[in-house]
Amino acid sequence: QVRLVESGGGSVQAGESLTLSCAVNLYTYSSYCMAWFRQTPGKEREGVATVYPYGRDPSYADSVKGRFAISLESARDTLYLRMDSLKPEDTAMYYCAADLEDADYCLWRFQNGKSHIESWGKGTLVTISS
User: Fold this and answer.
1) What b/e readout covers 29-68, taking b as 16+ CB neighbours within 10 angstroms?
2) How far does CA 28 lie from the centroid of its chain?
3) Cα–Cα distance between 95 and 122 in angstroms, integer?
4) Pairing between strand 10-13 and 124-129?
5) For 10-101, where are the E strands, in sequence order?
6) Distance (Å, whole) CA 11 – CA 121
7) Would you place residue 27 in the very low, low, confident or very high pLDDT band (cuts 50, 70, 90)?
8) E strand or H helix at 109
9) Helices first, then strands: H and E counts in the chain
10) Facing residues of 114 across strands?
11) Cα–Cα distance between 40 and 42 in angstroms, integer?
12) Cβ distance 50 to 37 under 8 Å?
């Protein structure tokens, strides 16, 4: 069973930075693509960033490209999301997740809103003020 615990959220000013962490308890997480999603009230959850197994080939939503960086630290079983130049529109609850289908096609699923996520953590709240 996948157990995900997000942390690192908070309230900051526009232009500042935050780094989110996700503790991942997977007995074979190395087989899965990992991703960060976010959601605001009344809106669907959207993919922010994803990475292939072993932290390869990160990919980002256009809205965060150049500002956010996803990384996977194997030794600590931790997925990170470094967020720079934050904007008020980045305000959301952020979730990490594992796509539990064939990793070869996880980028396509991520880009098309079809990631196979079986469980979600509680998320971590990010609030950006202008």
Assistant:
1) beebbbbbbbeeeeeebebbbbbbbebeebbbbeebeeeb
2) 19
3) 7
4) parallel
5) 10-13, 18-25, 33-39, 46-51, 59-60, 68-73, 78-83, 92-99
6) 20
7) low
8) helix 106-111
9) 1, 10
10) none
11) 6
12) no
**What pLDDT band is residue 22 in, cutting at 50, 70 and 90?**
very high
Which residues 6+ apart lie within 8 Å of 85 measured at CB? 15, 17, 67
77-110 pLDDT per residue, tens: 899 999 999 999 999 999 999 998 999 999 999 9
| CA–CA gap between residue 122 and residue 38 (Å, rounded) | 12
Length of the chain: 130
* Type of residue numbered 89: E
| Tokens at 75, concatenated | 């030794």
Residue with token string 């074979």? 28
Kindly report, residue by residue over 33-90, the tens digit of the pLDDT: 999 999 999 999 999 999 998 889 999 999 999 999 999 988 888 999 999 999 999 9
